[in-house]
Design a protein that fits this description.
The chain is mainly alpha-helical. The chain has 26 helices and seven strands.
Amino acid sequence: MRAERSTLLWIGLWLGVVAAALIARPLMPMDETRYLAVAWEMWLGGDFLVPHLNGETYSHKPPLLFWLINAGWAIFGVNDWWPRLVAPLFGLGTLFMTARLAGRLWPDRPDVARLAPFIVMGSLFFTIFTTLTMFDMILAFFSVLGLCGILTAWRGDYRLGFAVLAVAIGLGVLAKGPAILLHTLTVAALAPLWGPKLSTAKTNWAKWYGGTIGAVLLGAAIGLAWAIPAAKAGGPAYAEAIFWGQSAGRMVNSFAHGRPWWWFIAALPVMVLPWAIWPTLWKALPGAKSAISSGAGRFCASWFVPAFIVFSAISGKQPHYLLPEFPALALFAAFLLTHLPDPCKRPRLTMALPAALFVLVGAAVASAPFLPVSLPFVVEGLQPIGGIVLIVATLVIVASARPGIHLAVSNLTALSAAAIVAAHLAAGPVLTEVYDVSPVAKKLASWQKAGHPIAHYGKYHGQFQFPGRLREPVAVIGDGNAADWLAQNPTGKIVTYHRNEPTGATPEIARRFRGKWMIVWDAATATEDPDILKRR
């Protein structure tokens, strides 16, 4: 497969997956709606220095994503689609940077650069996340960019290489805080492990580590160019939150709750499906011993292993923490696959196990609404068409399989993309029914515009701000101040959540939401019976 055709193919798969997400599913509470709420309040208030959520300073994330969303709105006008494209575009950029990094690591083996983006894109977890408005794809992009800078410096262009690393660190800090250092700095620090194997040129280690420290300091300066003015403008509490909460504070807190040390060991094979059950890759694994002794193999290990150990050591584990390491796994796997003698002579047979998994999943989705058993509402609401599409796509891709490692890898990636598209076809309607807050948010906006105060009973994540284009904060009330708020706002509306559909008093709105019921009460009704506000 020619390089240009290969690139166009994984771009096309990315386009299909992202288009399916944009068309079929709503913004997902609470993360996506929260981040768009922050961007919306930045747009409304014109304060691009200190992010706000529901009228209060928002310290949980740095501002880069919000800046990028606002930049798009400045060009295209306020819309729903641009914010949902920002993170996916960085996912696409990560594929390009992975190919570029492969070309730097294996300049004499262009096949690795062709395969690696497919392996990244074909990993189901990465493919799912590339459709979400989250910070991790941005972090992954700058991580790979920083590693390209490290290799450029190692090849002899210190000035350009460390400048690229510095920019990657700085923008990575603005994307998701100091986590970028774990994904990049360990590779630079472990250069004595991989460097001499990658190049026999004599290295001035003082110059190398001096350049690394300089890149870190310059990257920190980029981050501090925002953080210091923001800390002054946001006040002492905000300053403490962004300097402590973004780094040590969050790390310390992660030990107080979470998952056991072995959790990533168990989760990783699932995260990299279908590659984990592809016999051809297992067949290539014996070559890992010789691969890890090469400079490029050690580079990938220096990238993946330290991050994996650190994230396994902290108990507050989230699967997306490892997304910046997916390219490392893909590069290593691509290198192994290109060294297989006579690979994939019987492509349909080698695809049988992954294909069987997709067919079984498709059959389960297609039959779920018709099973004579009680299932969760979301499962019962799945559309059979999604399962049917997945089965048909799998059979077509397997039937069209031809010998060759490039075709086999691209076929499996196409299967993964088809699975994500089918998942959106199957789940899109029910996700819209139980996760889409837009109908309620727009009604709240009309009430707010008409002069009715809006309150939220319990913790509020800003989920109504952007979908409703609310221009005023929502009051947050609870058991301690609900009575006072009702007395002061007799025409107000209160959003509450109940386990079951309410009986008795008639609410303004009752709608399924994330396994519960979202209820909007009129203040007069709640004043007559304040207990209806409490969850039950």
